[in-house]
Amino acid sequence: MKNPQLYMERCLQLAQLGLGYVSPNPIVGAVLVRDYRIIGEGYHQKLGGAHAEVNCINSVSPEDKALIPLSTLFVSLEPCSHFGKTPPCTDYILMHGIRQVVIACSDSSAKVNGKGIQILRDAGVEVIEHVLEEEAQWLNRRFFTNCALQRPHIVIKWAETADGFIGSRMQRTKISSIHTDPMVHQWRSQEDAIWVGYQTALVDNPRLNVRFAIGKNPIRIVFDRDCTLPPSLHLFDQTQDTIVFNTIKSTSKPNLTYLKIDPENYVQQIIDNLESFDISSILVEGGTQLITKLFDMNAWDEARIIHSPMTLDQGIQAPQLPSQHQMIEAYTSSPDRISIYKNLDR
Ligand code: AOF
Ligand code: ZN
């Protein structure tokens, strides 16, 4: 097979379409190729729905059906071998007589972890591994963080001025440009939850929803130790799932859950509690105090910094990115500059 990267690239594009809709499952794309022609495409579209391989095989037109056993299946993740919400993809692949499978990376979750590849090989299927592996692992970073660390994938985001401030004290200050808002709202739609600190909730009164992009709203998270945040804040408007961690009460109203936790190590306790809400990734939108706590605990996976050309002269200092980081991407969202880093110390 010449140029396997080309078809895997398409798998990664397809996988991306599932982002925000399949968590805590990984995003996965698949294509079927015969004689350099793509005869089927699919991706995992919905949690509980068919997997990428099944959608791909089912998409083949009636005229091409006879070509399926003669085709190569490209998948961005090792096919599953277990009964979850759906039956094993390995069964579906074997049932269709496919003889060659190319995968980008293995599925490190306990239930699969190499078994999918082994089952295919044992049945005589040629399995080619590691095609665009790094790219595919990065694409599914949320899933791989969950597998490796048994906690949600934590994305830190802030916007800072050219002189290093993230805002003014006691007053909402917009730092990033309005032209950057759609990108940030898309980021919100891609994670299960969004978390802000007490001061940010109070001073900024953020809505934390997705209104300048298309996508689902994340679950809002805040720590309100003594339940002193004013009920008039957007956070409490019950328009979107919200969890208020606190030390006073556990109650629940539609879209608004109060959960009592111990004040000690509250950041760790919140992280530990997120899994019970099926939260596998979280975007932390400030402020400096909360972000610095997460950095000090080494509880972060990605940092996305929006650099604005504006200056403030005084205000709240931006957080300091820990030294163990690698820049993954840098681009312009005029007039802002965006830099994306990953944590190397995990
Ligand atoms: C695949 N292709 O498209 C996906 C896979 O509960 P289920 O049946 O949806 O299974 C979820 C698990 O299957 C998930 O944790 C991961 O290990 C794997 N995801 N595998 O072959 C896919 N989404
Ligand atoms: Zn599967």
Which key features would you list for this structure?
alpha/beta, binds zinc ion, 346 residues, ten-stranded mixed sheet, elongated, Dihydrofolate Reductase, subunit A, 10 helices, five-stranded mixed sheet, Cytidine Deaminase, domain 2, 2 domains, binds ligand AOF, 25% helix
CATH architecture of the largest domain: 3-Layer(aba) Sandwich
Q: Which spans have pLDDT < 50 for at least 5 consecutive residues?
A: none
Q: What's the CATH first level of the largest domain?
A: Alpha Beta
Rounded to an integer in angstroms, the radius of gyration calculated over CA atoms is: 22 Å
Mean pLDDT: 97
Give helix and strand order, one letter per element, not per position: HEEHEHEHEHHEEHEHEEEEHEHEEEE
Give a short account of the largest sheet. 10 strands, mixed
Report the end-to-end length measured between terminal Cα atoms: 36 Å
Q: Which geometry do the CA atoms define?
A: elongated
| Associated small molecules | ligand AOF, zinc ion
The tally of helices reads 10
Helix content: 10-25%
Give the beta-strand count: 17
Tally of discrete structural domains: 2
Structure class: alpha/beta
Binned strand content? 25-35%
According to CATH, the fold-level topology of the largest domain is Dihydrofolate Reductase, subunit A
CATH superfamily of the largest domain: Dihydrofolate Reductase, subunit A
| Widest sheet: strand ordering | 11-12-10-9-8-13-6-14-17-16
